[in-house]
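The data are quoted verbatim for reference:
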Amino acid sequence: MDIEELQTFVEVADAGGITPAARRLGISKSIVSRRLARLEAELGEQLLARTTRGAALTEAGAAFRDHAARVVAEIETARDIISPSGELKGRLRIAAPLSVGPSQFAPVLAELAKRHPLLHIHTSYSDRFVDLIAEGFDCAIRVGYLPDSNLIVRRVGPFFGKLVASPDYVAAHGAPQTPDDLLGHEALMQGVEPWQLSDGDKVITIQPQGRFKADNGTALVSAAIAGIGIAWLPDCLVDEHIATGELVPILAPYPPPVAGVYVVRPPSQFPTRKIKALIEILVEHFGGP
C-alpha cells in the first residue's frame, strides 16, 4: 500500500472533493483520481462516493479514514526521527485566528517559508476552534486562555489585552470603577465567555452580559468604536485606536491576566520537524514563555 495513496485519500476525505484535495497537494486532479482508484482496487472497497458537489465518504471510507491518517502521521514522524537533518519539505497545514492572524502570524509564517524553500505552508484563518483531527490540520496557532483538551499544547509567548470603550460610551454611561461594576454595562463578546481581571495576585472572574456578539475581534472593535459597549480585546487590535482617541482603556487598575500564544497539535509521541520549526520561529518572534 503506497503512502502517497493513503495521504491522497485522507486529503480528499478532509477536503470533501478531488478538486480541493488536488489544490492542497499541489498535483493534478487526474493524479488524485488515479491514486484513489489504485487504493480502492487494492482494498476491494469503495471509499468515496463521487457526487456533483464533490466526494462523500462511504461507510467503509469513514471507517478507514482515521486509520489512514494515523498511518500517514506516524510515517512522517518516523522519517523525522531517522533523518533529523536536511531541508524541511512536504506540507504544513496550520489553523490560525482570523482576527489577529493576518497581522500577527502571517509575517512569521512568510519568514518560515523563506527559511525553508521546500516547505509548503497552507494556513486557514478562522476565529472558530477547528477540529484539527477531523479537518486534517497538522497544528493550530491559538491565543488567549485555552480550555482543557486532549491536544498537545506548547506556549510560545505572551499575549496582552485590555478592556476598552469609546469616549461617547463613557460619557453616556460612565466608566466602571470596579470589576463588579461591569455587570451593569453592555459587554461586547464573542459568546458567553467569562472575563478575568487581576486584582494584585488575585484573579477575579466576571460573567458580563451584552446584546452585541460577534465571532471576530475586528467586528467587536467596530462595535466598541461605535459606542455600543465595553470590549475585552487584544492590544494589537486596539492600541492604534487608543492612540487616535477612538477608544479609551477601561478599568486599567484591574488588567486582564496575561494570556498566551500557543501551538496546539493532535496527540502523538513526537512533534514533526515542521512543527518544531514553526514553534522555534514563533518563540523567536513572541519572546518565549
In short: The domain at 3-82 is CATH 1.10.10.10 (Arc Repressor Mutant, subunit A). The radius of gyration is 23 Å.
